[in-house]
Amino acid sequence: MIRLLLVWLVNAAALFALPYIFTSIQVSSFGTALVAALVLGLINTLIRPVLLLLTLPVTVLTLGLFIFVVNGLLFWAVGSWLEGFRVDGFWAGVFGAIVYSLISWALSALVAKASD
Questions:
Q1: Scanning 1, 8, 58, 79, which has the fewest C-beta atoms within 10 Å of its C-beta?
Q2: pLDDT in tens, the chain (116 residues)
Q3: How far is C-alpha 116 from the geometric centre of its chain's CA atoms?
Q4: Rounded CA separation 104/83 (Å)
Q5: Phi/psi class of residue 74: alpha, beta or left (left: φ > 0; alpha: ψ in -120 to 50)?
Q6: What is the model's pTM?
Q7: DSSP assignment of the chain, as one string?
Q8: Environment class of residue 55 by beta-carbon count within 10 Å: exposed (0-12), middle (13-18) or buried (19+)?
Q9: Long-range contacts of 98-105 (CB under 8 A, 24+ apart)
């Protein structure tokens, strides 16, 4: 349970860092980042697998690159649904999702190393 909360905080911190890298992504507060990280986690757990299954032929044809499109669309969608979290367009969603994943991965690695 503690690990799940720690991952959630790390993801929120990664999301809160994105506006410092991209001006096309806005996060109004750390509380908004917590809610957005929770919604992104739920969408990635529930909706993303269904979308990946439905788009499997296109994903195979593009050698997996279509997954970036799916991730960007979901990131952009969450930015349109949540108040205080804004993603200005599709490409901002794609690049934001990539950088969000990289920052989250790096912070998770640091936290895991610190807890050892």
A1: 1
A2: 788 899 999 999 999 999 999 999 999 999 999 999 999 999 999 999 999 999 999 999 999 999 999 999 999 999 999 999 999 999 999 999 999 999 999 998 888 877 76
A3: 26
A4: 22
A5: alpha
A6: 0.89
A7: -HHHHHHHHHHHHHHHHHHHH-TTEEE--HHHHHHHHHHHHHHHHHTHHHHHHHTHHHHHHTTTTHHHHHHHHHHHHHHHHSTTEEE-SHHHHHHHHHHHHHHHHHHHHHHHHHH-
A8: middle
A9: 98/68, 98/71, 99/18, 99/21, 99/22, 100/14, 100/15, 100/18, 100/75, 101/71, 103/14, 103/17, 103/18, 104/10, 104/11, 104/14
